[in-house]
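Help! Submission page says 'invalid entity' but I think these are all valid:
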Amino acid sequence: MASHKRKKITLLLGLILLGLIASCLAEYILHYSPYEQHLSLALQGPSFQHWLGTDVYGRDLLARTLAGAKLTIITALAVALLSALIGSCIGLFCGYRQGKAVTCLLRLADIFLSFPTMVFAIAVAGILGGGTFNAAAAITAVTWPKYTRLVRNLVSPLRREYYIEAAQMSGFTTGQILFQQILPEVIGPVFITAALDLGTIITEIAGLSFLGLGAAPPAAEWGSMMSSSRLYMQTAPWTVFVPGAAIVITVALFQLLADSLRDFFDTKLVR
Amino acid sequence: MGKYIGRRLLQLIPIVFGVTFISFLLMHLAVTDTVDVLYEQQSGANAAAAAAKRAALGLDQGFFTQYCHWLWQVLHGDMGQSFVTSLPVSTTMLSKLPATLELMLLALFLTLLISLPLGTLAAIRKGSIWDQLARLLSFTGNALPDFLFALILLYFFAVKWHFFSFLTPTADRSPLLPALPLAFAMTAKYLRQIRALLLDELSKEYVQALLCRGLPYHYVLTHYVFRAVAAPLLALLALSAASLLGGSAIVETIFLWDGVGKLAVDAIMLRDYPIIQAYMIWMSALYVLFNLAADIICAYVDPRLTLRKKED
């Protein structure tokens, strides 16, 4: 059973990696630049030369969609990693210590949790201006408190465990206890939660770019590609649905990966 | 009970301060000067006029003085004026709110209509076709972003079948189509939670005991199990409402639905900061109120919650 699950994880990871590599090498494999415009070839349907058709500027959609994978996946990974890192560090501290600072930090997490994710991201990206960086920062700002909550709830009961007390009495520093004794206990659930979040983060980033708050138009980004092709939906529906399909496939792959990872490690602590 | 509600209300105070502070801070970071933005359309102003305007608006004072002054006005319902239309922000928001609420309530209704029966069936007939269907629905719902689903609906209903024209906004259009993507996204989250919650409750010993006494299964389900899970179900529903509030901005933009979300997106394009700020505060307030209402109803439904709080 375990080997079956391991095979499934390897397969999914392989597919994602393949997509990433194809994305990096897209220009060389396809001989089409994702950015070069050929206005005479605008809005052509799928054909032998252009497998998935062309957009309004005559750019090859397959090349653009493949090139978009790189940006989306790397941004999503960075957001997940950063929010997990920030959230877990604060959560470790809040679970292990008590006092005013901890109460303040938890209240801060509560405040960020009381913003609906997309509302906050739209407002932040809208006020500070668009761009991939701002969109990613906005999503990170509302994602980290979840990890603080999770880690704190896992760490709090550990505080009274004998092995922690033993470590304290034998003169371990707080840092050593937190990172050597407690961290290994909580890293599994954090990892799984981050994996489960990846899909959501990808849709959120695409949603922000769709509204014009993420990567700006010439960039090959799925959300912004869909947004700029929306007007041609009547005559060239593929310009909208090809990047859309790319989003669905990527999110589905990451979701399947997260589910199999959860099954593999059989963590009951994560919902 | 009264004490519990009172304490929950007290807990809101730091959240209200935090939410308003963050939105004020954002504005401060973005527009270093409101005056510059105001005069931008008139191709700048001379320094003396700008300084006078600044003093009149209180912008020459310290950050905290400004924040307190602003908060005082916000608490009195005054959120300033739109940079573009010069109308009071609160009036504009209030005029758009009913359309958004209509959309959200319909989406909420659709979510409950689908996820409650299907989630229950998936839990009591584990592994059956219903369970498979529930899984499929929640998987696709999570993988299919709401804006893509909205565009697919638009493609079929407006482009292929010509049910309506999506380029002209009409006042009397049915909210059903824009509500569908919102409901779908929320159903995906909620179905999974209902199923997990019910499975957990059904595996408890008291259910076995009741069944052993010869009570019919449906009776145990309706009279015991549902009462036990009512409170957490409600709390989870309030949490999933976040996807409604955020999703509405995208869906309203696609369907040209004249609500708060579209207002905010239009405001972003025009750099109308007071509207964006108001949008952020109103939506967070709505979300917090949803959760507060859910908590209070939970406390009525499940007396254990109030008792447990007392023990702390």
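Support: the input was valid. A stray whitespace character was the problem, and the output above is from the cleaned input. Chain B touches chain A through 50 residues (CB under 8 Å).
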